[in-house]
């Protein structure tokens, strides 16, 4: 939403996060309005339905409505790794009725790597709260011969024409490219509209692997549709205690 922070009294209604930031547009004083909120509040999501950012947004909107009695809807404005949604939100009226659920990829990472963004992560918005903090998960098809990360790297090097990965956010792309840089494995990025779609592409065998957020990835791992080879960071995820961290995997 925008400045003059009309949401001050309702921040406690938002769930607490890292990869999805609840942002209000910076600018006007919505506190001057009487009876706020008196119409629908729009939560803007930059990825398709079913992805991690979208799932978090739905949890936030549900709790927001329960705790405030206000009416809110989610708008999925997909494309450019979330940048289309962020630019759209940044240019809405500063009246307190537009909220961006911004992933780290479209906020901090995009700000660092794209010089001509139509928004500024720290100047165009006021952060309201964090929604979640968690590692990313690297998955391959369940029937793939690679049983660990080193075997995946070796397989990709032996089969460069079949080495691709799905991604829907700059955050996931950078993690995948860092893996390539450190291991020397090949890999062509295939863009998707959400992390749910990139994970389903792995299930279908369209992509060799994807590195994504947990909400769409973990159910497929636990359901035997994909195999998790590692989680990013130095520690294991409580949700996947048998899956090594990238540090453990070498």
Characterise this structure:
It is built from eight helices and ten strands. With 250 residues, it is of the alpha/beta class. It has two domains: 123 residues, 3-Layer(aba) Sandwich (D-Maltodextrin-Binding Protein, domain 2); 113 residues, D-Maltodextrin-Binding Protein, domain 2 (3-Layer(aba) Sandwich). Helix 5 links the parallel strand 7 and strand 8. Helix 6 packs parallel to helix 7. The N and C termini lie far apart (42 Å).
List strands and helices in order, with pairings.
Elements: E1 20-25, E2 41-45, H1 52-68, E3 72-76, H2 83-90, E4 98-103, H3 105-113, E5 125-130, E6 137-141, H4 149-158, E7 164-167, H5 170-183, E8 188-191, H6 195-203, E9 209-212, H7 214-222, E10 226-231, H8 246-249
Parallel strand pairs: 2-3, 2-4, 7-8, 7-9
Antiparallel strand pairs: 1-4, 1-5, 6-9, 6-10
Helix pairs in contact: 6-7
């Amino acid at each position: 939403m925008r400045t003059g922070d009309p949401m001050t009294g309702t921040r406690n209604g938002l769930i607490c996060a890292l990869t999805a930031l609840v942002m209000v547009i910076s600018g006007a004083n919505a506190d001057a309005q009487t009876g706020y909120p008196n119409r629908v509040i729009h939560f803007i999501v930059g990825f398709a339905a079913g992805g991690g950012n979208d799932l978090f947004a739905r949890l936030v909107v549900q709790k927001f409505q329960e705790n405030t009695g206000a009416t809110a809807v989610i708008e999925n404005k997909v494309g450019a790794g979330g940048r289309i949604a962020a630019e759209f939100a940044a240019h809405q009226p500063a009246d307190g009725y537009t909220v961006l659920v911004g992933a780290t990829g479209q906020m901090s990472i995009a700000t660092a790597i794209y010089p001509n963004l139509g928004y500024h992560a720290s100047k165009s918005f006021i952060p309201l709260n964090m929604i979640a903090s968690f590692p990313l998960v690297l998955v391959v098809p369940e029937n793939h011969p690679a049983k660990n990360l080193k075997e995946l790297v070796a397989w990709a090097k032996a089969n460069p024409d079949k080495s691709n990965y799905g991604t829907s956010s700059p955050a996931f792309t950078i993690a995948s490219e860092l893996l390539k840089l450190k291991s020397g494995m090949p890999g062509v990025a295939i863009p998707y509209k959400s992390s749910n779609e990139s994970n389903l592409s792995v299930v279908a065998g369209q992509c060799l692997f994807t590195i994504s957020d947990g909400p769409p990835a973990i159910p497929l791992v636990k359901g035997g549709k994909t195999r998790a080879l590692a989680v990013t960071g130095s520690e294991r995820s409580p949700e996947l205690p048998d899956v090594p961290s990238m540090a453990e995997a070498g």
